[in-house]
């Protein structure tokens, strides 16, 4: 007997048809006039689901059974899909993923940023990643447990603390596939426990980076400080002996409680101090980037090439332009654009990353670039006596542009602002803050993160008429 008309309550089971996809990955259905957000659902499916949260205007639910399949669904290619918290959409065909991501971003910008549906690029699907398996150039693994119970992997779906053992992730290139298991086996035998927030333990993060063009691999191991543990040299030797393309092994320590894959103090570095990635411009020339253990670089190299090329197309820079590149990382989009403008001025908080940006400029023979270390969350983040910019590029963290930087942008009043974001909600919020002085002229979404709920956005804001 169907329970479509049964009263909805927490713990009850309902049947519904998934109509669309919410930003964040949940399916959206309607039941008795209420919006229901359903985990692990694909648009077009008819599902049976259990209500886990009930509010006045919406409910949240977990899918318990697929009653009717969707034309968009597919069989996941990873054995960990149902339990791993990394991927959300391996059960959805890739062209459907780019369709829904483009739609999600457009709806978010329209709802929060009040951006017109007539704006160029609104309503279009996200540009696809050239690769959607083995596409990542960086992966961060977590540790938990002790001795035989030690785990190396990713957070369980729906958990902030529990770690799922992952022997191999298909989003990493095959050349890296043996590393997680090698590290886990070694750490288990060491009889040293994983770090526990604010308490004890040693192992914190395993970061694997790989340059897709050169094939060079870097392993960055982050631990808590210790005067008694001496396991690192043995692990280092094990990896160099078994991973042919490993060029760099770095060991850093971290004291901070935040669960970040960033070292605070580098203890040792063996091999090359960096690996080198190359991205090809539209004119066929490659821009090379040195990637150091803590430096920021887009996690999808082939996707970054699409993102940067599309950014240049949208921005339409001029040879006379002076451009500020804020949150510039190790050079990123500004270096990709340098041959089309008069000068690029980059600002980044990490001194290590700024040094990498300067080295990247030298590596590429770029003479019209300057880079400065500055905390853009502070009023003093901008260096003094810089020329007035014609364009400002911002690629801020997920939280968006900090208030002091937003005030400085408005004060500088550039003709164009090129906003690159991995969070359409904060892009929309910041676009509305700039609303009286600037209008979103062009927009594009780029799928840098296939099979996940994340998407990269590009928006060009120009001075309002």
Explain how this protein is built.
With 465 residues, this protein is an alpha/beta fold. It folds into three domains: 13-68, OB fold (Dihydrolipoamide Acetyltransferase, E2P) (Beta Barrel), CATH 2.40.50.140; 99-130 and 300-463, 3-Layer(aba) Sandwich (Rossmann fold); 138-276, OB fold (Dihydrolipoamide Acetyltransferase, E2P). 21% of the residues lie in helices and 30% in strands. It is built from eight helices and 22 strands. It has helices spanning 94-113, 179-190, 232-242, 301-315, 332-337, 351-363, 403-412, 424-433, and strands spanning 13-17, 20-21, 27-31, 34-39, 46-54, 58-68, 138-144, 151-155, 163-165, 203-210, 217-223, 246-253, 265-271, 275-280, 286-291, 322-326, 343-348, 369-373, 391-394, 416-421, 438-446, 456-463. The strands form four sheets. The chain has a seven-stranded mixed sheet. Helix 2 runs antiparallel to helix 3 (232-242). The protein starts with 12 loop residues before the first strand and ends with a strand. The mean pLDDT is 93.
What's the CATH H-level superfamily name of the largest domain?
Answer: Vaccinia Virus protein VP39
Shape: globular
Roughly what is the average pLDDT, rounded to an integer?
Answer: 93
Number of domains: 3
**Termini gap:** 61 Å
Q: Can you count the helices?
A: 8
- The helix-and-strand class reads alpha/beta
CATH fold descriptor of the largest domain:
Rossmann fold
How much beta, percentage-wise? 25-35%
Instruction: Specify the biggest β-sheet.
Output: 7 strands, mixed
Indicate the CATH architecture of the largest domain.
3-Layer(aba) Sandwich
Count of DSSP strands: 22
* CATH classification, class level of the largest domain: Alpha Beta
Query: Which strand order spans the largest sheet, edge to edge or round the barrel?
Result: 9-8-7-10-11-12-13
Radius of gyration: 23 Å
The poorly predicted ranges are: none
Order of helices and strands: EEEEEEHEEEHEEHEEEEHEHEHEEHEHEE
The helix content is 10-25%
């Amino acid at each position: 007997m169907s329970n479509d008309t049964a009263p909805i309550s927490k713990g009850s089971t309902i049947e519904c048809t998934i109509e669309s996809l919410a930003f964040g990955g949940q399916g959206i259905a309607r039941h008795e006039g209420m919006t229901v957000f359903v985990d692990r659902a694909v648009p077009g499916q008819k599902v049976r689901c259990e209500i886990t949260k009930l509010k006045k205007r919406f409910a949240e639910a977990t899918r318990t059974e697929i009653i009717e399949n969707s034309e968009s669904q597919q069989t996941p290619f990873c054995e960990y899909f149902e339990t791993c918290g990394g991927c959300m959409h391996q059960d959805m065909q890739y062209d459907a993923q780019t369709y829904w991501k483009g739609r999600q971003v457009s709806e978010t910008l329209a709802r929060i940023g009040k951006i017109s549906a007539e704006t160029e690029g609104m309503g279009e699907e996200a540009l696809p990643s050239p690769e959607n398996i083995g596409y990542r150039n960086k992966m961060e693994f977590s540790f938990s447990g002790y001795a035989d119970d030690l785990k190396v992997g990713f957070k369980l779906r729906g958990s902030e603390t529990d770690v799922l053992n992952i022997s191999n992730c298909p989003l990493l290139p095959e050349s890296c596939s043996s590393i997680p298991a090698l590290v886990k086996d070694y750490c288990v035998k060491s009889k040293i426990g994983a770090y526990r927030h604010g308490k004890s333990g040693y192992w914190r993060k395993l970061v694997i980076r790989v340059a897709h063009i050169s094939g060079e691999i870097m392993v960055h191991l982050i631990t808590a400080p210790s005067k008694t543990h001496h396991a690192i040299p043995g692990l280092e030797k094990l990896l160099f002996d078994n991973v042919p393309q490993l060029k760099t092994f770095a060991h850093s320590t971290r004291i901070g409680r935040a669960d970040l894959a960033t070292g605070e103090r580098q203890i040792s570095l063996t091999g090359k101090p960096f690996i080198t990635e190359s991205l090809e411009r539209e004119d066929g020339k490659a821009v090379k980037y040195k990637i150091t253990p803590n430096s920021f670089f887009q996690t999808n190299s082939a996707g970054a090439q699409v993102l940067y090329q599309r950014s240049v197309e949208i921005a339409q820079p001029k040879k006379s332009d002076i451009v500020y590149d804020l949150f510039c990382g190790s050079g990123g989009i500004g270096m990709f654009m340098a041959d089309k403008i008069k000068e690029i001025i980059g600002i980044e908080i990490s001194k290590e990353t700024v040094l990498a940006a300067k080295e990247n400029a030298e590596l590429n023979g770029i003479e019209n670039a300057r880079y400065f270390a500055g905390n853009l969350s502070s009023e003093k983040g901008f260096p003094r006596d810089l020329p007035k910019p014609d364009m400002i590029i911002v690629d801020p963290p997920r939280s968006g542009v900090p208030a002091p930087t937003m005030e400085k942008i408005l004060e500088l009043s550039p003709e164009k602002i090129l906003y690159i974001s991995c969070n359409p909600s904060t892009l929309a919020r910041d676009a509305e803050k700039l609303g009286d002085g600037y209008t979103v002229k062009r927009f594009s979404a780029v799928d840098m993160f296939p099979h996940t709920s994340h998407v990269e956005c590009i928006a060009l804001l120009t001075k309002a008429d």
